[in-house]
Amino acid sequence: MTVTSPAASAPAAAPAAGPGPRQAALRTLLRNKLAVVALAVLALLLITAVFAPLIAPYDPQTQNLLLRLKPPAWQSGGAGSHPLGTDQLGRDMLSRVIYGTRVSLLAGAGAALLAGVTGTAAGLASGYFGGWADRVLMRVADVQLAFPAILLALAIVGYLGSGLWYVILVLGFTGWVSYARVVRSEVMSLRSRDFVTEARAIGVTDGAIMRRHLLPNVVAPLATIGTLHVAAAIVAEASLSYLGLGVPKETVTWGSMLADGQLYLGTSWWVAVFPGVALMLTSLAVNITGDALRDVADPKAYRR
Predict the structure, then answer these.
(1) Is the pTM of this model over 0.85?
(2) Residues in CB range of 9: below 8 A, 6 or more apart
(3) Which helix (H) or strand (E) holds 200?
């Protein structure tokens, strides 16, 4: 007589389900300590920009010539009431750096959003339809790439005039090509796939195919390009403001602060250094975040 043990007769346990794609992406992102620090810096900058009137100790435009070019609080002659010192007109440097965050983040995010929407639409149409639409759109992109972006931006801003929205419009217009080329390449590799062919066979319109089936497949590279474009737009806005062709002088920007401080580098270094450091840290944090998103978007990254 054969006796069957309970363990042998029990059905085998089902293997534990692995983490889903979102959990794997989050785990990959959290494993990158540098990216976590960069995200924390960006969150702090966003909070600073939104609540600048509550955080800044002074109005950034308030002048006091009796306190002009006061050094930071830790240097001889500095005052605790102005931790980062004052500029050539006696304005508080900390308050001006805080308010400058608003313009930089708005210009970077606005330009990236405008360029992303325009470039994605152009790339979808070019890659999906091909033919004359592809030839026309890509030749327009080639012509724009023939001009240096900063020179094209200078020419357009010089014609339109200064203003934050003009700057966003210009930077968005000059940045759409990179989005269009990446989306076009992805769509051209996807348009002959079975799910697109089957959608056409059952009568789904071209617009619905691009919106429902193709666009979700290009979100990952778009997120990476968009993040990196934010950093480029922030630097471009600062460059235009430094040259006096960006945001009007009455609006506090890091670029205009750098322009004001260049005359005092030898005697009052803090007037130019602090906005320069803020610009560098912001661009660095955005670029590190973009690199991390690129790793998360790569399925091979989950298996590292």
Answers:
(1) no
(2) none
(3) helix 194-201
Please tell me the least confidently modeled range out of 20-29, 85-94, 121-130, 170-179: 20-29
Residue pair 201/188 in contact (Cβ under 8 Å)? The answer is no
How far is 260 from 296, CA to CA, in rounded Å? 41
| Cα-based distances in Å from 31 to 21, 26, 136, 225, 302 | 15, 8, 44, 22, 11
pLDDT at 80: 85
Distances (CA, A) of 242 to 13, 156, 284: 66, 16, 19
What three-state secondary structure class fits 86?
strand
Q: What does the alpha-carbon distance between residue 69 and residue 260 come to, in Å, rounded to a whole number?
A: 12
- 44-49, Cβ contacts within 8 angstroms, sequence gap of 24 or more: 45/101, 45/105, 45/282, 45/285, 46/105, 48/98, 48/101, 49/101, 49/102, 49/105, 49/106
Question: Which residues neighbour 108 within 8 Å (Cβ) at sequence distance 6 or greater?
Answer: 229, 230, 231, 233, 234, 237, 286
